[in-house]
Amino acid sequence: MIIHLTDPSLVLLIGPSGSGKSTFAQRHFRSTQILSSDSCRAMVCDDENDQSATSDAFELLYLILAKRLARRLTTVVDATNVQSSSRTSLLTLAAACGVPCVAIVFQLPEEVCQRRNLQRATRHVPPEVIANQMAALSESEANFEREAFACVYRLTNEADADRLTIVCS
User: Fold this and answer.
1) Which residue in 67, 64, 3 sits closest to 36, CA to CA?
2) What is the mean pLDDT of the segment spanning 126-155?
């Protein structure tokens, strides 16, 4: 599969914990292009697992995103983004900056996400959190076509992400 991105673009990675979003982002984008909710959480409280810092982390993420989009720089948001409400403000910001927004949806089986979560060296998410994220993703699936995405790409198995090529123009 080839993903064609207009430069600049806002790329939203959408999927539950353990679906491979961060690994994918690191493989296909420069570190300066990736805004990770976990990294922002670590920046504001020194612990990417501290959920009490989530509000501050997203405030920081949105601030950096606004600055990057205003400069017309391609930016990747690495967060679960599984609920429509979490995507709305990101889509609105991209539209205000005149930057197209592309969704890359990680629709891998829950067993894969749970297995990958257990294999992580440090940060483990409780299994019920992943199950809830899977349910939220499933519920919002119908909304993708109604949301203001320039394009929606779906990765449904582990090999999809491995074979994928991203072309920016």
Assistant:
1) 64
2) 92
- Which residues are CB-neighbours of 106 under 8 A, at least 6 positions away? 13, 14, 15, 16, 19, 20, 21, 24, 155, 161
DSSP type of residue 32: G
| Mean pLDDT value of segment 129-152 | 92
Interval 66-118: pLDDT, tens: 999 999 999 999 999 999 999 999 999 999 999 999 999 999 999 999 999 88
Residues written for the chain:
169
Nearest-angstrom CA–CA distance, 2 and 166: 6
| CA-to-CA dists, residue 27 to 22, 34, 125, 154, angstroms | 9, 11, 22, 17
Structural domains of the chain in order of their starting residue, each with its CATH number? 2-33+73-168 (3.40.50.300)
Q: Band the pLDDT of 124: cuts 50, 70, 90.
A: confident
Which element (helix H / strand E) includes 14?
Answer: strand 10-14
